[in-house]
Amino acid sequence: MPEFTRLTLDSLRHLRTRLPALSPQALTLLACLGFTLLYNRRFWAAVIEAEPPAGLGDWGQLVGYGVVMTALHLVVFLPLVGRLTVKPLLTILVLVAASVSYFTGHYGTYFDTHMIDNVLQTDTREAGELLTPGLALYLLLFALLPVVAVWAWPLRRRGWRRALASGTLWWLGSLATLAVALLLSFQSLSSLMRNHHELRYLVTPGNAIVSTGQVMAAPPPLPEERLPIGEDARRRPNADATPRLLVLVVGETVRAANWGLSGYDRQTTPRLAERDVVNFRDVASCGTSTAVSLPCLFSPQGRGDYDERFTRSHESLLDVLQRAGYRVEWIDNQSGCKGVCDGVERASPAPDDYPGRCGEEGCLDGVLVEELSRRLGEIREDTVVVLHMLGNHGPSYFQRYPEAFRAFTPTCETADLAQCDRQAIVNSYDNAILYTDSVLDGIIGVLEENRSLSSAMLYVSDHGESLGEKGIYLHGLPYAIAPQEQTRVPLVWWASDGFLGGQGLDETCLAAQRDASLRHAHLFHSLLGLLGVESEVRQEALDLTSGCRLPPA
Prior knowledge:
Layout: H1 3-18, H2 24-38, H3 41-50, H4 56-77, H5 86-107, H6 113-121, H7 124-130, H8 133-152, H9 160-195, H10 206-216, E1 234-235, E2 244-251, H11 270-273, E3 278-280, E4 282-284, H12 290-297, H13 308-313, H14 317-323, E5 327-332, E6 345-347, E7 358-359, E8 362-363, H15 366-376, E9 383-388, H16 422-449, E10 454-461, E11 466-467, E12 473-474, H17 484-487, E13 491-495, H18 497-503, H19 507-511, E14 517-519, H20 521-530, E15 533-534
Parallel strand pairs: 2-9, 2-10, 4-14, 5-6, 5-9
Antiparallel strand pairs: 1-15, 3-13, 7-8, 10-13, 11-12
Helix pairs in contact: 2-4, 2-5, 4-9, 5-8, 6-10, 15-16
């Protein structure tokens, strides 16, 4: 046996002899106290910010909240506790609590059902960016050491009758404590939760357990085949025989607050600023994560009536366009289309084809320009190409652009944002937008050079990002409490004269809506209008082209 291992085991045996034997319930109480005091720092910081304590009574109120939290966890966990189950159960809870508390504390995330969906849909590349030295050190202190203590702690031996009676008394006592604590704290606690209902998503580990349970208890399976929408869809004839091409560029994690065309104090979009584009300044996303916003973008439902089950069980905008006679292709430089592109042609840039732009962390978005350029010469019919960008996907903003676009310095050169000051993080994020500006400019340039197509481009980001405002980073907060940095996104439109003339569109009329308050919900219906698709599923009130169609010549 290696010397280190032998010394470690000897240390654990020595520790066991010095620790008092506890019942499984008492050990669970210690763990729950640890959760309350050590793993809920973000919760306590938010409570103190919402209701700053001004006197001894206010501090007593905070103690009451702590009793409620501890007793609530006890009431939930004690029925699962026994001599054989307590240590495996507490191991799982400690690992969950440590992981959740790291992300709530370092990035300001909230763990609700959407966050659990994000976790379940995250691929290995995205997950790898979050595995930082800071996380490893945190888990060493708040996961590994507590787990070692749990397994080292000796348990008291009792017969099954005494153990059952003791467990029942512990549970009843915890329930009584919870009831009394709630009674004493009810008025202040109910007011706090009513005015700041987002706090429930910070109670660790209960937030992750409840949200995971809600996700796992989802409704019955969806139908094997998606239900059709827009079955009456048909194209209006083009004014000439030139094939129409719309390139829909779906951005990732780009917020309007840092978009140069929308008034940011830095010019992060210099190339688009020199082009004849329409930039819509006030656009609200459907969600604060790709898992919600991407399907919603291609659904006839907006955020107000968004139903995830409906969206997943029904066809998308792309199916309607195909039914109307358009050829549709999805080119992905991301982690997938969340089911949106099922049923259409799909492709992804092959890293071997772009050795200068691709590495272990993925491909830079410039490959999308080249992928599009390769395909233009083969287009002989009305076509829609969707380009799904990697964009500003965090936290590794520094990996989203080549060195030539490192214009704003110093930059944050790590995925562990806690290691960087906020300005360095913002600089890296802005450099990534600067690169997105170049990619979009390149797409427009490729379309302009091809005279055989009547082409247009529309760019929209799926959601925004927090960059440290109020201590919050990344995205995914519940929409009701999400800051505008996560919900306001850029939307840019460009079209050739041939596309506008062929569709009979008045660009001046479209441009006049640049300051209108828009939502992702406008995209489904406006794209049908832009592409001349007639269908009952199109809502005229949400179609930006409704009043912008020129009378026939």
